[in-house]
Amino acid sequence: MSTLEERNKQIVAEFMEVFSSGDVDGILSCLADDAKWWVAGSIPGISGTKDKAGFKEMVSGIAESTTTGAIRLTPLGFTAEGDRVAVETESYTELKNGRVYNNLYHFLFEVRDGKIAAVKEYLDTEHATAVFVAP
């Protein structure tokens, strides 16, 4: 594997650590100014494509609903090719409403100039909806 691919995997791993801390400004500092974040499915307020400002709004809202202010992301496996890094990931957090969010993901990150430029987030949308949206 090339040095570029190893560096990109490290950038994504560091992003997941920062994301797990709940530091919204730190999370945003990892993203390119023109970054796009896409989430699978039709989860109200979560799914679809967001620019950096929309991503900040989504992450801030989710963080406020958790007991710790963050969702812990644990990478389970990385695959990198060029600027693309695929990561199988598990999440965990407890919500103020008493629910537990523990989901599995497949993320596809695109890294450009040391920043995350684009993300595609595939997840169990039924679980996310049941935990974050359902009454």
Features:
135 residues, alpha+beta, Nuclear Transport Factor 2, Chain: A, 7-stranded mixed beta sheet, 4 helices, 7 strands, 39% strand, SnoaL-like, NTF2-like_dom_sf, SnoaL-like domain-containing protein
How would you concisely characterize the structure shown here?
With about 140 residues, the chain is of the alpha+beta class. It has helices spanning about 5-20, 25-30, 50-65, 125-130; strands at about 30-40, 50, 70-80, 85-95, 100, 105-110, 115-125. It has four helices and seven strands, in the order ααββαβββββα.
Question: Can you put this structure into words, describing what you see?
Answer:
Strands 1, 2, 3, 4, 5, 6 and 7 form a seven-stranded mixed sheet that branches. With 135 residues, the chain is an alpha+beta fold. The chain has one domain: Nuclear Transport Factor 2, Chain: A (Roll). The chain has helices at residues 3-21, 24-29, 52-64, 125-132; strands spanning 31-39, 48-50, 72-81, 84-94, 100-101, 104-112, 115-123. It is built from four helices and seven strands; from the N terminus they run ααββαβββββα. It starts with a helix and ends with a helix.
List the helices and strands and how they pair.
Blueprint: H1 3-21, H2 24-29, E1 31-39, E2 48-50, H3 52-64, E3 72-81, E4 84-94, E5 100-101, E6 104-112, E7 115-123, H4 125-132
Parallel strand pairs: 1-7
Antiparallel strand pairs: 1-2, 3-4, 4-5, 4-6, 6-7
